Amino acid sequence: MSDWSQAASNRPAEDLAPPIATATGNRGLQIEERLIFEQGSRGRCGVDLVDPPPFQTRLGGLERQGAIGLPGLSEPQVVRHFTRLSQKNYAIDSGLYPLGSCTMKHNPRLNEKLARLPGFADIHPLQPASTIPGALGLIDMLAHWLKTLTGMPAIALSPGAGAHGELCGIMSIRAALEARGDRRSRVLVPESAHGTNPATAAACGYNVDSIAGNSQGRVDLGALQAKLDTDVAALMLTNPNTCGLFENEILEIAAAVHAAGAFFYCDGANFNAIVGRVRPADLGIDCMHLNLHKTFSTPHGGGGPGSGPVALASSLARYAPLPWLVHGPDGLELVEHKVGKAQQAIGRLKGFHGQMGMFVRALAYMMSHGADGLRQVAEDAVLNANYLRVRLETDLSLSFPGPCMHEVLFDDRFLKETGITTLDFAKAMIDEGYHPMTMYFPLVVHGALLIEPTETESKASLDQFAGVLKALADKARSGDAAPFRAAPRWTPRRRLDETAAARKPVLRWGPEAVDQPAEE
Amino acid sequence: MRYLPLTDRDRGEMLAAIGVDSIDALFADVPSAARRDGLVDLPRAMGELEVERAIAGMASRNVAAGSVPFFIGGGAYRHHIPAAVDHLIQRGEFLTSYTPYQPELAQGTLQYLFEFQTQVALLTGMEVANASLYDGATACAEAVMMANRLTRRGKAVLSGGLHPHYREVCETYARFVGFELAAQAPAPGGGENLAGLVGRDTSCIVVQNPDFYGEIRDYSELARICHDAGALLVVAVTEILSLGAIVPPGEMGADIVAAEGQSLGNALNFGGPHLGLFASRDKFVRQMPGRLAGQTVDADGRRGWVLTLSTREQHIRREKATSNICTNSGLCALAFTIHLALLGETGLTRLARLNHAAAVALAERLERIPGVRLLNRAFFNEFALRLPRPAAAVVDGLAEKGVLAGIPVSRCYPNRTELAEILLVAATEMVTPEDVDRFERELKEALS
Amino acid sequence: MSTLRFTSDHEWVRLDGDLAIVGITDYAQSQLGDVVYVELPEIGHRVEKGKEAAVVESVKAASEVYAPVSGSVTEINETLTTDPATVNSDPMGDGWFIKLRLDDPKELDSLMDEEGYRRFIAEQR
After folding, report:
1. Are B42 and A363 in contact (CB under 8 A)?
2. Chain A residue closest to B104 (CA)?
3. For residues C57 and A462, what is the distance between their CA atoms, to the nearest angstrom?
């Protein structure tokens, strides 16, 4: 069998004392809330619409027959329902999210206001260009800021998120190789890479070859050089890497990759550590995706939407996906077809032009910070992570000695012989009011705990966080394992059975046979 | 700087605790050749007022759909969003929360995703739906790839009525992921023989309903033909509201539905972020891309929800994942869920009826203009007109007169001269009688 | 008489006449955790020694099951489709994955016997 040694099985929680029962199951402000399908009524509607006067329909005899099965609710019920749901979520607005690789920084509200201006929200992507010069102008300005920050001459803005940006990058590289008649079949990926990297390479038809790390948590240059040959299309590297460390041999790495005729792809998820201080172009990178929802503060929204623009070196710019925004004789124009300079474009990756709503937010963020503020962002992000490193290195096991960048990696050696796993430790953090850090990633250490505070945490917030982790570590080592196994105790739900969910998936509300709309 | 809590004093104390003199010491691993001591060449920090002025200035140079008679569709539709939707999605616990990987801290997100998945399944008439993809076009490409995996065949046939962006995205994926596409020529007004194209090497046929030209068809027979040949039927839907009025793909025998959900809860946003909907059959669920919220119980036996079947996804299967996708369209899915919860069965069907009524009335008026011919036999809220001269110039002219008249098909097919006179026109519940009057008047004048 | 052998990847193979039965060991299932899904090959499919023959999934991991010997699949354990938990409860018996018509019985010689595998696991811990 291949490696499963870090599989974290969900052991059922052991109880300390049963919680006090209430008649409703509610606990103060924590309210139990059914599904909308269990609350609907046929006569109800939360939107007042007037039926049109009778008319001759032209649906070709394909009118929908029978009920759809959607519940009817009034506005007060809908508002209450979703408000109650929101109260069961942790959020950046409520507390620190120490998630390594996610960059959970504050989401400025100015961004929300500006994205909702009718001049951005209420315009159609296919309106005549003469009616949307301001939209093209904003996209152009965003492109300028991102090109300046990365030092790269070109940027593809259409990818919908980071993984989509990776796809864009690898496709561009493949197109470049095909254009020069060079058939290569492998992509090199460090073993510490995020799962999207090998998934992307494999999706584009490449065989994925893993590169080992050295004892300092960086890519082993010798191992890389041994694997580099004329069959390698690209190296996909994250820098700083997923252990929170800057690849100090990156110039040598770039030189080796280029000497083999391959391309250097950089996963820009960790750009927050170096934005404004280091330009990826100066590191020899050919292609790098950015996550606007990480470095540039666009909100995570419970899982999306994101935006994943890709900065490109001149060797790859001509392959950028459509549409292109170019400076034409009459001003800014969209190039939507493979004509002229865009003849070799890889094609379209998404409908329309890209995540405009996220462009507005990201530009507002960047303009608010400016060149000086963005540099300060990277510095404070790195400072905060290192402060946590020194506050915690005696209590948790630091995986790699020495300074880190914007995130710090620990592993579960400090839990050895306590009978407590990284998972149990994380559940105990939840009871203390914290979302756990990234766990079990990267795979290069056992029971990884990857902490990224970001620059928007105050020193007091970090001190409190470090204090809690220290206390939990002390408690773990004292041999008192039961509270960890019973955790969490104070959340709306505790230790959900993920095994049952996977064995017998229930992915929608029933009943299956729908003769009438959901009834109360 | 208003978003940065650290003071210089904090920084000093923290550097001392770390044991370094300056922040530069923490960047020591950066090669000296790449070190930049100065600032990048960009403006310095600006206060809220200045940023607002600069960006609002750009916004004000655009003609917003609400300010003029507006008839553009083509895969993104202007609808009225109830005020409650935007207020609810801006609650910090929704807006600023992360992917629900820690289910105990995210029951809010997981419950609404479960409700969303149910709504999408009900609307499309399918058995199961995922927690959203980026948009309809990428959902369509994912559907083709899923069909390839399920049938172990590598050739998909795309109807000429499929939205050109959806086709183009499929073509990009086909080229690099490595499968074949037989994309049919656009055929507004029908005449396509897709049944004749189903072979033993066909993984799927992809159709759109209503199609790019607004035409509505029954694909039940095509579904049977596909299944007889061991192929799948993929149906794309660009105007999800249409399913409030017409037979859904599930009832026609579709195996996979790839749709755009923007019409419910989400503004036009100049094309993004939008909302990819993806639905299929239970027996295919393990080959579905994207996240899935599943119901379960917790340690106290209470019902709750978790992300499930994660072993399909990139963070576990890595190079063997069903898709490389990580992020979904979470907040857009929430907006959809809330809007549809407010509409309910009655509201949705009534809203769909209003849309169809608006389009029927508009079509009747425009058909009367000399030289204008309606191409559709049937339509929902969008139809195709053949004008007596190239549509692009007509549209540009009308834009200067303050009417956003629709989409000249030549924008998407610049090389097909036979399509140059075709104009796509959409009418939603937002269209007023005054808008219709103006459009008729201006178009008549432009064509005289 | 049946021969039971083990691989260093924690698969077992038992010879039963000219058929080889393959599964994963008790050690493997305990490390994997609750099995939620098993992906089995088709009957008639050819497997090669050391190459992927099946996939076993827990909630948090998906693991390849490699063929200990080469051959063609004659039978697959349908029970695992409806009740994957059988892999956890009876990995050496009812939790078997596939039966193969063996290419070359000599391929078994290079595998560990029961005692050898017991020692191998002891070293792992």
Report:
1. no
2. A493
3. 38
A516 lies within 8 A of chain C by CB:
no
Residues of chain B with pLDDT under 50: none
8 Å CB contact of A370 and B109:
no
State which H helix or E strand residue B428 sits in.
none
Residue A509 pLDDT level (bands cut at 50, 70, 90): very high
pLDDT of residue A513: 40
d(CA B224, CA B230): 10
Cα(B266)–Cα(A447) distance, integer angstroms:
40
Domain ranges, ordered by start, for chain C: 3-107
Tell me the per-residue pLDDT of B396-414, one tens digit each, with 9 for 90 and over: 999 999 999 999 999 999 9
Q: Give domain A370-490's CATH architecture.
A: Alpha-Beta Complex (3.90)
B215 token code pair: 């035409």
Domains of chain B: 66-79+345-447 (3.90.1150.10), 83-339 (3.40.640.10)
Percentage of residues in chain A having pLDDT higher than 90 = 88
Contact C36 A499 (CB under 8 A): yes
With 0-12 CB in 10 A as exposed, 13-18 as middle and 19+ as buried, what is A231? middle
Tell me which residue of A444, A454, A358 sits closest to A409, measured CA to CA: A444
Residue B101 phi/psi, 5-degree rounding, is -75, -25
Question: Looking at residue B312, what is its pLDDT?
Answer: 74
Residue A518 binned pLDDT confidence (cut-offs 50, 70, 90): very low
Residues of C in contact with A440 (CB under 8 A): 60
Instruction: Tell me which chain A residues have a C-beta less than 8 angstroms from the C-beta of C34.
Output: 9-10, 499, 503
d(CA B360, CA B366): 10
Class of domain A111-365: alpha beta
Secondary structure, 3-state, C26-56: HHHHHHHCCEEEEECCCCCCEECCCCEEEEE
Nearest-Cα distance to chain B for C36, in Å, is 9
Is pLDDT above 50 for A514? no
Cβ-based neighbours of B434, under 8 Å, separated by 6 or more:
B69
Q: Is the dihedral of CA B238, B181, A344, B322 positive or negative?
A: positive
Which H or E run contains B417? none
Give the gap in angstroms from C-alpha A478 to the nearest C-alpha of chain B. 26
C125 near A CB under 8 A: no
Q: Which pTM value belongs to this model?
A: 0.95
Closest CA to A280 of A434, A152, A465, A427: A152
**Residue B383's beta-bridge partner residues?**
B425
The pLDDT of residue B318: 65
Q: What is the residue extent of each domain of chain A?
A: 111-365, 370-490
DSSP symbols for A362-420: HHHHHHHHHHHHHHHHHHHHHHHHHHHHHHHTTTSEESS-S--SS-EEEEGGGGTTTT-
Classified as helix, coil or strand, B126 is coil
For B275-338, give the DSSP string.
-EEEEE-GGGGGG--S--EEEEE-TTS-EEEEE--GGGSHHHHGGG-S-------HHHHHHHHH
| Interface contact flag, C60 A502, Cβ < 8 Å | no
CB A385 within 8 A of CB A451: yes
Q: Is C79 on the interface with A (CB under 8 A)?
A: no
The DSSP secondary-structure symbol of A1 reads -
From residue A474, alpha-carbon distances to A396, A463, A487 in Å are 10, 16, 16
Alpha-carbon gap: A312 to the closest alpha carbon of chain B (Å): 18
Task: Determine whether the interchain pair B320/C62 forms a contact, defined as Cβ–Cβ distance below 8 Å.
Answer: yes
**Contacts of residue B54 in chain A, CB cutoff 8 Å?**
367
A55 with B357: CB under 8 angstroms? yes
Look up the CATH number of domain C3-107.
2.40.50.100
Give dist(CA A139, CA A160) in Å, integer: 15
